[in-house]
Structures are given as C-alpha cells and as structure tokens.
C-alpha cells in the first residue's frame, strides 16, 4: 500500500495557488520525446505522424474512487490506465495526457503530487507524458478529467465496427478481477491495511484478494499487447463496462452476433472463484458483467490470433441477438452503464 | 437571452443513462471535415498535418459559472471559447473538442443538449467539431472539462517565451468587459431578465451593460484574427487571468520587461467607464486586472503590426520589473489566479 497519510492536509492546494501547485508537481511530470512544448504555455505542442486519436474520461470522488480505499497514487494510475487503454484499443501509440483537476480544500498539495506521480508513471511506461493540465477549485469532491492523445503512425484505426462474420472473439488481459476487488471493499472485507483477518486464513486466497483489490484500485491493461496486435485485429475495445455490454457494442456497431463460449471463459471464472464466498455475486457474473479490468476484447481471423490474445468465442451473422453464451441469448442487465 | 426554463428538470440525465443522453444530443454534434471517426468509439480519430496542440480547462458550477446567471447554452459557449482561445493563442487551427461532464441529478437531459449546442456552435464557427466525450454522475455541482486540439499545419507555435526587446506589445479583442459583466451580476444589478430598472435609465449605458454581461457569460475572442496573425507574432497568449498577470507570464517566460502605456489602453477604459457607478472596481482596474474576455496579447516587430491588433506598449530589456505602466512598476495583485 502507498502512503495514505498524504491523503489529507499537509498543504491545502488553495493556499498554494495554481502556479504553486504546478511548481510542487513539476518534477514528477516528464515529457515524451515527441513533445515539442510541454506544460506551461497555452497549449502543449506534439510532433505526430497522424492520424491522431483522442479520448477523455472523468473520474468523480465517491463515484469512481473512494479515498478510504485508494491512495492518490492509485487514483492517478487508474485515471491514466483507463484512458491509455482507450488509445491502445484503437491500435494507437499513446503520446500525451492532459489532466484537469477540480480540488476541494481537503485535497492537499501533496495529494496532487502523489496523484500526478501515478499519472506520470503510467504514462511514461507506455512512452507518453503529462503535457498539460488545469487546476481549479471544487465545491464538491475531487474531480479528475484525463484526456489521452495517441498517434496511429499512419495505420488504420481498429474500430468497434470492424468485426466480421467468421472472426474469432479474442481477449487480452483479465476479466472480473476489478469487480471482485470492488465487492471486497464494498463489503468491508478489504480495508486499507489488507484483507480482514476473519475473512480467510488461506494464504493463496488472501493473495488473490490483494491482487483483485489492486486491479480495482488501478488496472493494468496489457497496452503493448493491444498495440502490437492491432494490424491483425478487425475490431477492438477495452472492456470498461463489462464483457457482455462491450460485446453488445461491437455487435451493434458491426451488425453481427457475438457468440461467447463458456468453456473458453472458464479460466477467468476459475481465477476469481476462490473469492466467491467473500463476494456478493458469482464468479461468472463478475467475469461477464464486471468492467474496469480494461482487458482488450477484439475480433480477428481465427487462424491469425495475435500473441497475447486467446479465443473466447466467435462472430456469427446478425440474428437479432447481440450477445449469446453457448448459443443462449444473454438476458438481464448486461453490465455497468454510466449514469444508469 | 436564451431559454432559461430548460435549466432545470424535464428529463433527469440519470434516468436516461449515458447512451440515452448521447442519443439526445447526437444531432447537435457535427464533426469537422478532418475527422475520420467522431464520437462513439473508444477514441475520436483526426486527420492532421501536425504539430498538434492540446489544452484543457475545467469549469466548475459556482466557481466558473452560476446557473442563475448563465443559460446552459452560454455555459457551453464559454467552455468552448476559452479552450479555442488557447489553441488560437498558439497560432494553431482548432480541430476538435472532447468534452467531459459530471452531472448531478438536476442537470436535465435538455440541459446537456443546450450546453452541447453552445459548445458545438462555437466549435463549428472556427472549423472544429465535438468529437468525443464522457458523461458521468456528480455528487456536487456540474463540472465540465473541455480539451481542445488544434493543428499547426506545419507552422511553428507562437509561445509565451518569444517576446523580443524592441517588440511592440499588441492586443486583439476587448479588455475588462467580462469583469464588468461579472461585477454587475455579482452586485445583483444584472439579472436574468436584464439590467435592473433602477440601475440607470440611459439606453446606451443599458446596452453597454448587456454587452458586458454577454461577454462575461460567453466571451467572443477574435480567433481568426489571432490565427491569421500568427506568422508575424513573436509571442502570444489569450488574456484569461488579467492583462497584468498574463503580461507578467510573457515577461518571465521571455526574460523581458513588459511596458504598458496607459494612453494606449485609454480606449479600453473609456469603453467600460460608463458603468463605473454600477461596479465595485474602477474601469482601469477592470481593464488591467480583469480576465476572461480572452483577448489576445502578443508581441511583434513594431513596423509589422498584424491586421486586427493594436499597440498597447513595448517590450524592454529585463529590469527586475516584469510589468510596468508608464514606467511605473505594477504593484498589488496582478489579476486572477486559479485556486488563489
């Protein structure tokens, strides 16, 4: 766990002013080699080949993160990860993040610094930088908005609409771990000091719980795998709202039916099943409907599965049923929907 | 004034879900010609020449806008305008906005639609589109984050650090009008139905008050003028935090002294002076320290003033004094600082 003492006070950001906060975090922000002008002017300036991709996500305290569960470093990592996953899901190379933060008085200067460090570490790991931002007061909780930019370097983007009948449905990354972590925190079984003693005495189960909690706090989507595979993929998304709902989106955008095979998803269920007794939903539900691991679901020719991906189903012609499992239409809530 | 009845209720965004809200606003969002993929995939995809510029701003309800003063359309226009000004201040052509919104229950679907219309109208007027976004719940007030992207089309960016000794300081756009509008609202003299009857009976003063209030609600920076002039300018910023503070930023970035001439700023003072009796600060203070008109302050060779700009001072060698007026160092608060 990271230093949680930093979450509150030390220096109130509102006493520092925007320039003061920027001075406090400037050394953790490193620019990417393709950056011509980093933070500090009206805009960042980036050298690109093009086409350029852009995506934005807003994280709201109490809605997307809880300070009792996540350190500011975790929150920064998470904000970066989910946006970088969107860029990689297009097959693009992430080049820059620009970050807006609305901060209440309790968000200390050190809070901002830790969050910026989480953002910058994740960006740097994939060759991007934090190239600009805006800091302002919030009258509610903390709000973080991250916009990620990427460079396709002359390649065609991998869209949701490219799935073809006969394709394999493939996946890279984990499913259900973030949801499992969330349910552990939400039930009070996972705490800032780790899994509650009374939850279980089995060491492998405890380690699995810690791993799921870590994915919930800050997912680790396999960005390099997705970007490296892009040339072979016909369609791709990162799984943010659950495998079922995101497969539905590919189905509708591509005009196809997405047919999942439960035996091919069994390894994902088996991975999180040891925590079933500590969770309120089944392993199968967490794998199928839990989002936010930001795995990559894609489709490609069945004889050209890219490295790091594995098959979980097949693309069939449109049948009125967007998503099925073992030929049974998927019913009930398909997964998480924002605002819903 | 625009339909203020739309501000509250009709359809609670939280009942529509993110897809429902997107469906409600999709017809007001038009993509730019350079957009390959607009909203609806993991990222927007833009065709660019490059280098690319990027900037982001966060607008917080109660901090940057007040619903009793501004319609959702105004708020959308304002959010777009201040980001588009940052792009133009680099000499770049705005190409896309991506928009994040955190919405409490009272932000109706129609509220989002009106705000999106304001954003889209301003983007379209300069050749850009709304190419992506994120909608989420807020537990506090409304938070809008806008990221603007622009294309330098092979040109060198105009930075804050480019001012040269011997340059003229030039400006395009208005100064002090936004601050004047704010003071009228803040004193209760300007209301949603216009200037209070008892404030003045003089028609020109009433019209001026309405004009200043409109600039406060949604500024109109001369974007085309700034972009068209870029090749002749050595340094440029949009005035967001007040002329004094923003000149200080140019002074420090360029290692020069910015020497303003009060006689050359007299027309700006004279424009807003008729409202002095209704404001709490002097015309001179509003012109020098009031930000958010998003005028463009720049420097260039004194014999090559671009069309649409006029001289307000000169760039001298660094003297330890960042900004002076009529050779007197500027003292006291230099202008608005976020978080301060």
TrEMBL record, chains A, B:
Its EC number is 2.7.4.16. One of its GO terms (biological process) is thiamine diphosphate biosynthetic process. Mg(2+) 5 binds at residue 241. It is an enzyme of class 2 (transferase). Pathway: Cofactor biosynthesis; thiamine diphosphate biosynthesis; thiamine diphosphate from thiamine phosphate: step 1/1. Mg(2+) 1 binds at residues 56-57, 134. Transmembrane segments: none annotated. Mg(2+) 4 binds at residues 42, 55, 86. Mg(2+) 2 binds at residues 57, 86. PANTHER family: THIAMINE-MONOPHOSPHATE KINASE. Belongs to the thiamine-monophosphate kinase family. This is Thiamine-monophosphate kinase. The gene is thiL.
């Amino acid at each position: 766990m990271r230093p949680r003492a930093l979450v509150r006070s030390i220096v109130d950001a509102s006493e520092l002013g925007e320039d003061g906060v920027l001075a406090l975090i400037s050394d953790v922000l490193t620019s990417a080699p393709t950056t011509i002008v980093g933070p500090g002017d009206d805009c960042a300036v980036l050298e690109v080949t093009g086409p350029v991709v852009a995506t934005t996500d807003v994280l709201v305290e109490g809605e997307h993160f809880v300070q009792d569960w996540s350190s500011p470093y975790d929150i920064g990592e998470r904000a970066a990860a989910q946006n970088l996953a969107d860029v990689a899901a297009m097959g693009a190379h992430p080049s820059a993040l620009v970050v807006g933060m609305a901060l209440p008085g309790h968000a200390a200067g050190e809070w901002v610094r830790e969050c910026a460090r989480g953002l910058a570490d994740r960006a740097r790991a994939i060759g991007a930088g934090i190239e600009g931002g805006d800091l302002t007061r919030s009258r509610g909780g903390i709000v973080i908005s991250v916009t990620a930019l990427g460079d396709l370097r002359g390649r065609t983007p991998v869209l949701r609409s490219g799935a073809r009948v006969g394709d394999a449905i493939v996946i890279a990354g984990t499913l259900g771990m973030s949801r499992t972590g969330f349910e552990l925190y939400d039930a009070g079984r996972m705490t800032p000091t780790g899994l509650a003693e009374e939850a279980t005495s089995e060491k492998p189960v405890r380690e699995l719980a810690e791993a799921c909690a870590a994915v919930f706090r800050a997912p680790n989507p396999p960005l390099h795998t997705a970007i490296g595979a892009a040339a072979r993929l016909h369609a791709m998304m990162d799984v943010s709202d659950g495998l079922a709902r995101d497969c539905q989106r590919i189905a509708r955008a591509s005009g196809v039916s997405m047919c999942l095979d439960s035996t091919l998803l069994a390894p994902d269920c088996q991975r999180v099943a040891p925590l079933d007794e500590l969770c309120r939903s089944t392993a199968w539900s967490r794998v199928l409907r839990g989002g936010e691991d930001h795995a990559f679901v894609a489709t490609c020719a069945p004889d050209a599965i890219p490295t790091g991906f594995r098959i979980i189903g097949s693309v069939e012609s449109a049948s009125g049923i967007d998503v099925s499992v073992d030929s049974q239409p998927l019913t009930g809530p398909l997964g998480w929907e924002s605002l819903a």
